[in-house]
Amino acid sequence: MDTAVRFPTTPKAIRARPLTLCARMNVEKAFQAIMRNCLDQIEANEHGVVKYHDVESLHQMRVGLRRLRSALGMFDEVLSLPVALRQELDWLVSQLGPARDWDVLAGSTLARIAGTVDADTQLVRVQHAAADQAVALHAVAGAAVVSERYQNLIGSLERWHDERGWRAMQLPADRVRLKLRIGDFAKGILEKDQQRLLKRGRKLKGADPAARHRVRIAAKKTRYAAEFFASLYPQKTVRPYVRALGRLQDELGLMNDASVADRLLRELSESNDEIKVGAGFLRGYLASHVRQGGCKLRKLWKRFVALGAPG
């Protein structure tokens, strides 16, 4: 008889499955495939968020939500999610976002700093305080995902997808566009996203956090579009494009993490006198590194611009 004690293990966080669209698909069927892919990613991470308060499961659920909202934005000209469901999606994002912000601060941003400076009691206190905040907010996120409100939201999205609920709200011209091949539609989306990103990126040099954040959001939406439609284009062109976008987005993400960290550290220091000194040092450290990161960001931007959009 096997008498070994078995402990439950944290489930593996689920990333988005590879998505393959067929060039013969019409716009409506392509949207259904994309939305199904996003919903699968969201729902696959429920268990990790609710039962284990798993950091990576929460992250992947948020990625799924961002991808879904991005897809809805891309197809908004031909189909539209009801306002009530959009508001419920916003609610869910608001329940998951704070926990992720504190996860990044405690587990990534402060961990990187701790590896480059001499550890002292002040810094350790800040790390512990940030980790405590993350734990508390994971409980909030888990409660949201297990709630009846969440179940109603997911059920409504599933029905809207399966029953093609957008048809009830469409004009005749929109129905015609839904029957067109996905290729021309995808090309238009990618060109539009590329132009928006290029326009925002021209002001990267000397940009403040708000301007960089706008570039980051544009880069993220462009990357999601490129990944959704990647199977429609030659891999030798789409892969370098997505890779360059990813590197640009990562660097912009690190800068945004520093900006968010500054806000969270300020909140911590205002509510806890014992960590004011440590929080103040960390805010100064992060501000210095953001200034130094501008050169790398500009190089990544130039590499991305040189590639051009696939198609």
Automatic annotation (TrEMBL):
InterPro entries: CHAD_dom, CHAD_dom_sf. SMART domains: CHAD. Residues 24-306 form the CHAD domain. It comes from the Bacteria. Signal peptide: none annotated. PANTHER family: CHAD DOMAIN-CONTAINING PROTEIN (PTHR39339:SF1), SLR1444 PROTEIN (PTHR39339). This is CHAD domain-containing protein. It comes from Massilia antarctica. The lineage of its organism: Bacteria, Pseudomonadati, Pseudomonadota, Betaproteobacteria, Burkholderiales.
